[in-house]
Amino acid sequence: MTKSIRCSDAGKDCSWSTTAQTEEELMGKVTQHVIEKHKEIELNAETISSIKSLIKEV
């Protein structure tokens, strides 16, 4: 099943969203987006866990 996430679900004023077949692939895309667009976010274990809780199956 396809997985999706939207940046706005994390409370950001950002229209970015993505989909992937696996959580691993999706988190790779999320990580790249955070590095490029949200440099203020520290990708630590707590943040990653919070992000993963926002993943939806579509």
How would you describe what is shown here?
With 58 residues, the chain is an alpha+beta fold. The protein has one domain (3-57). 40% of the residues lie in helices and 17% in strands. The chain is built from two helices and three strands; from the N terminus they run ββααβ. Strands 2-1-3 form a three-stranded antiparallel sheet, covered by helices on one side. The chain starts with a strand and ends with a strand. The model has no long low-confidence stretch (mean pLDDT 97).
Brief account:
The protein is of the alpha+beta class and 58 residues long. It has helices spanning 23-37, 45-52, and strands at 3-6, 17-20, 56-57.
Give the helix/strand layout.
Layout: E1 3-6, E2 17-20, H1 23-37, H2 45-52, E3 56-57
Antiparallel strand pairs: 1-2, 1-3
Index terms:
single chain, 58 residues, three-stranded antiparallel sheet, 2 helices, globular
Distance between the termini: 7 Å
| Strands ordered across the widest β-sheet | 2-1-3
% residues in beta strands: 15-25%
Radius of gyration: 10 Å
Reported for the largest beta sheet, the result is:
3 strands, antiparallel
Secondary-structure element pattern, one letter each: EEHHE
Helix content: 25-40%
Principal-axis shape: globular
Ranges where pLDDT stays below 50 over 5 or more residues in a row are none
Helix/sheet category = alpha+beta
Calculate the mean pLDDT score and round it: 97
- Structure summary, number of beta strands: 3
- How many structural domains? 1
